[in-house]
Write a sequence for this structure.
């Protein structure tokens, strides 16, 4: 076995590795023909390299080679499915620092306009507002009776739910920030 | 010494660049832009270049310029101001000039000292261009993650379907006008049934009194899909599979 | 090094393989913490596994492990760049010299305002700033507590990734330019 690997390494280990690199970056199954073209070798050589690669991956590592949808593709070995799922499963989306800041300002000062948030933070908060809207944590309440009739924002039921609050009076008191009633 | 102005002074990005003001003097002949670039890159010694001809050229240019070319004139003024400032710096006494260097090192402020930083970034960029990362989909959307269905196995599911089918009536010939429900409709119906029940339901509880094999298959598929998208949960009690709504 | 590999092998070459699978599916650099969480092991064990994995990949195959932009990621080995480029046909987007200069100044002097960049360069950098923003290489950090409250710029994670850096302390020291802390 060892001898076979060494022979493969001598003769075309480089092609095996190149094929691995090619399959690694490809977003979809790659055909034998495309692999041959990209590596500048004959399809026959690539087929041998694929076989050697498949053998090597089968023996060690967390990745394997599959022939799928008319091409070749790398994928994780099934025994790591659970751990992969742990990593990929849409985790409770953590809010970024600035989105949290905007959310806090809205929670304590609602109803509030984007302009007023800007005055408090000193930076535009459009992106954070959009993220918070998408997550259903804030909502447009109404329009302020002021020039331009700007939108007033407030928190949602979902916000209370997500942050484990019964109602807005549950918000912890913050020195210097008047609570909402 | 006449300033000659050619008109073509906006970069593709819409940024005004200094107009190609021609400077002719004993120490330097060329455009203002050239002098500016040479000075910025530390390739000329400004201390040896009199700036008064440059200023004259600028003044002549600015008095001749049309009022709509104010950006361009501003860019020229910036370049000139930079030269003046750099010249002022270069005239300051240098404490201990390193003997081995021919060109005196230019004191700050200058972008010249960042040349090495730029080069190193460039190198990093070129090295990085040799590395390729996986073209990952958005947040792993390309990956099939196993569905969480507790202790259910495919065997459990298969047996449940078998039992369901065994109780099915033979398929009746439906009038062609009758629309076959879509899977989405069946899913909605099944979900509503499970949610309103408020308790665990078996497969059979989802079916009407009489149903065809096709109905059974549809309901079975709907349940699988609802499990997949995480709207319901399932478990095993003895031989039977129970289904319940998942609190969202 | 050898010790770490042996330790990893004893306790479970399986973890090495699991880590490889995790890195394989991740669309971006993964932190040690996330790897530990997903694999259900201690960070110390994962660190050993990463070392063993890096060593194994270095020896064979077309893929290697890099520490980049604050996390670990798999990528192809540079010697296969040409073949990979054949397959992907990436558009090489090079930055112009002046954009690079602005980027270098921001990288070394961040947080910095456009005005401060102007003082250093002697030319307006608005266009370069816009290009760098569009490419996601720099970001607005906050506003400076100074007249006009000008925007302070800094580099992004994307910058680290594109320029092959793990963090800002990886920037080479440049004489006369104080490094960022």
């Amino acid at each position: 076995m060892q001898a076979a690997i060494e022979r493969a390494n001598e003769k075309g280990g480089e092609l095996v590795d190149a094929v691995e690199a090619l399959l690694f970056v490809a977003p979809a199954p790659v055909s034998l023909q495309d692999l041959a073209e990209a590596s500048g070798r004959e399809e026959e050589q690539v087929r041998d390299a694929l076989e050697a690669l498949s053998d090597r991956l089968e023996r060690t590592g967390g990745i394997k080679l599959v022939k799928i949808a008319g091409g070749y593709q790398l994928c994780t070995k099934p025994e790591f499915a659970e751990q992969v799922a742990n990593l990929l499963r849409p985790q409770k989306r953590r809010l970024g620092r600035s989105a949290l800041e905007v959310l806090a300002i809205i929670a304590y000062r609602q109803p509030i306009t984007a302009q007023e948030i800007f005055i408090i933070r000193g930076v535009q908060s459009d992106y954070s507002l959009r993220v918070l809207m998408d997550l259903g944590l804030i909502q447009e309440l109404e329009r302020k009776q002021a020039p331009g009739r700007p939108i007033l924002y407030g928190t949602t039921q979902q916000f209370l739910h997500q942050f484990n609050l019964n109602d807005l009076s549950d918000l912890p008191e913050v020195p210097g920030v008047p609570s909402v009633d | 010494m006449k300033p000659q102005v050619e008109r073509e002074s906006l970069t593709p990005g819409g940024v005004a660049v200094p107009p190609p003001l021609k400077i002719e003097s004993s120490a330097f002949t060329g455009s203002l832009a050239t002098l500016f670039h040479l000075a910025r890159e530390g390739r000329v010694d400004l201390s040896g270049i009199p700036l008064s001809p440059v200023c004259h050229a600028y003044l002549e240019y600015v008095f001749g310029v049309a009022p709509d070319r104010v950006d361009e004139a501003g860019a020229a003024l910036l370049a000139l101001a930079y030269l003046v400032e750099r010249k002022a710096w270069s005239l300051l006494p240098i404490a201990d000039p390193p003997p081995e260097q021919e060109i005196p090192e230019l004191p700050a402020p200058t972008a010249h000292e960042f040349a090495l930083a730029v080069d190193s970034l460039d190198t990093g960029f070129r090295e990085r261009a040799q590395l390729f990362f996986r073209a990952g989909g958005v947040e792993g959307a390309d990956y099939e993650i196993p569905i969480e269905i507790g202790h259910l196995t495919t065997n459990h599911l298969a047996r449940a379907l078998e039992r369901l089918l065994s109780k099915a009536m033979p398929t009746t010939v439906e009038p062609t006008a009758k629309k076959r429900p879509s899977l989405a409709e069946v899913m909605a119906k099944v979900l509503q049934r499970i949610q309103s029940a408020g308790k665990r339901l078996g497969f059979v509880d989802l079916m009407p009194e009489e149903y065809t094999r096709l109905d059974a298959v549809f309901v079975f598929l709907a349940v699988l899909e609802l499990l997949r998208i995480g709207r319901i949960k399932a478990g095993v009690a003895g031989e039977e599979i129970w289904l319940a709504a998942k609190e969202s």
